[in-house]
Amino acid sequence: xxxxxxxxxxxxxxxxxxxxxxxxxxxxxxxxxxxxxxxxxxxxxxxxxxxxxxxxxxxxxxxxxxxxxxxxxxxxxxxxxxxxxxxxxxxxxxxxxxxxxxxxxxxxxxxxxxxxxxxxxxxxxxxxxxxxxxxxxxxxxxxxxxxxxxxxxxxxxxxxxxxxxxxxxxxxxxxxxxxxxxxxxxxxxxxxxxxxxxxxxxxxxxxxxxxxxxxxxxxxxxxxxxxxxxxxxxxxxxxxxxxxxxxxxxxxxxxxxxxxxxxxxxxxxxxxxxxxxxxxxxxxxxxxxxxxxxxxxxxxxxxxxxxxxxxxxxxxxxxxxxxxxxxxxxxxxxxxxxxxxxxxxxxxxxxxxxxxxxxxxxxxxxxxxxxxxxxxxxxxxxxxxxxxxxxxxxxxxxxxxxxxxxxxxxxxxxxxxxxxxxxxxxxxxxxxxxxxxxxxxxxxxx
Length: 446
What we know:
By secondary structure, the protein is α+β, with helices and mostly antiparallel strands. The chain has two domains: 1-347, DD-peptidase/beta-lactamase superfamily (Beta-lactamase, 3-Layer(aba) Sandwich); 359-439, no CATH class. Helices cover 24% and strands 25% of the residues. It contains eleven helices and 20 strands. It has helices spanning 8-21, 65-78, 101-105, 125-133, 150-164, 168-177, 223-226, 232-239, 245-248, 256-263, 325-338; strands at 26-33, 36-43, 59-60, 185-186, 201-205, 210-214, 228-230, 277-278, 283-287, 290-297, 303-309, 314-320, 363-367, 370-376, 382-386, 389-396, 401-406, 412-420, 427-432, 435-439. It has an eight-stranded antiparallel barrel. Strands 2-1-12-11-10-9-8 form a seven-stranded antiparallel β-sheet, sandwiched between helices. A hairpin with a 6-residue loop joins strand 18 and strand 19. The longest helix has 15 residues, at 150-164. It is globular.
């Protein structure tokens, strides 16, 4: 592989330019290449507040937390405290269906995404799992396919608590992050520590030129799926677990064979719109002959991304405190490609020509208690509402695929698709942002 050179000055200038272009209040970038880590920061913690982002500023990383929860679970597998393919009801008898750790970590458990954060806001992690998993209404049979699930990672968090005797917060910090030299912050915790150096999230409306801070709304029970706040430098440090400790200088925590298993695409894990496949806690991205692993995270008004290529010993971590950070990331991937780092990232465009849709598409679809409603919009596009709130504009393409555009910011987000029953041919499912929802009884024009 050709030698890649990344200059610190270029990295800083590029990040600052993109922060201004995408109206992101603040961001961080960390790049590991040629055995060296380079970091850059731009903007401020809170829009108009004047406090600059520093290398140590923690950003809510949203769902990238799942990669850390998965790594913690795999460390317990390495210690023979857990097994990948054993029924987890051995430890959590309150679960209403046999599930394995492998299925939970690869989003092939069939569990729904989970209840709305407001519903679970007053629940502990123990109660959250007990009440919502006792008799789960699976969106798919366990092991049959991919449906992104926050609830599945709440189950993993409870499993970790049961076998360690610690809370998830204590375990993730003491077993995984502290040994790596990482001091985490948390969006939500039983005994939260206040920190003045955690960036605020922001809702950015580019068409109206309006930027406003937003409050994090994650429920306690969802913590293992999204509660971490880290700097890009620390997020990158976590990602370096998948590289040779002799090169990184980090503790040899993760056995090589288990690290390789985390990077392997798991059976049935087809995360259309998110990645090319899914391993144990990570999406898998193919760029030519290279394979990257990583995870994307969107908290309330924040956007974060982690990518690691164990073969080339390259890694990228990006954090931002604006909902427009996803557009910045997409352009940043192109900028890095120009200097020779072909970052694995699922492209936001949709294959095939734009097309019209059959009327049977319209109606409601359910993922657990969450209702997805598709209705006509102008210019032959579609409106997507979640629990009655319009969240995205969908542009239909061939093969029942669609592009998805955030309703408020106008940013392109993960593409998705509609699906037909393979036996009857009836259009009965939608897969959006990795989550599978089934046609609600009596809904639509089938």
